[in-house]
# Entry
Amino acid sequence: MAQERTSKVISISLPPEAAAEFDRLAAETGKNRSELFREMLEVYRVERELVEFRRLQRYGADRAAALGIHTEEDVVKLIHEFRGVTYP
# Structure
């Protein structure tokens, strides 16, 4: 019975200088091309998530400022107000 591959082979094209740099990085880090590519892909994914997080953070800060919410205590007061509980 044939064993299924646990990975998929892809092919990319790079300019010769970029390919040489990629191979140099792989050698410097002691990784093969596949390991280096997977690591770089993960770093790229995390960076994209951070960019989106920062965008949402800026949006939230702008909305809070527009609503007059400047401190964590302001947030706590709003929560109590929403719940109908008297804030100390």
About this structure: DSSP finds three helices and no strands in the chain. Helices lie at 16-29, 33-66, 72-83. Residues 16-83 form one domain.
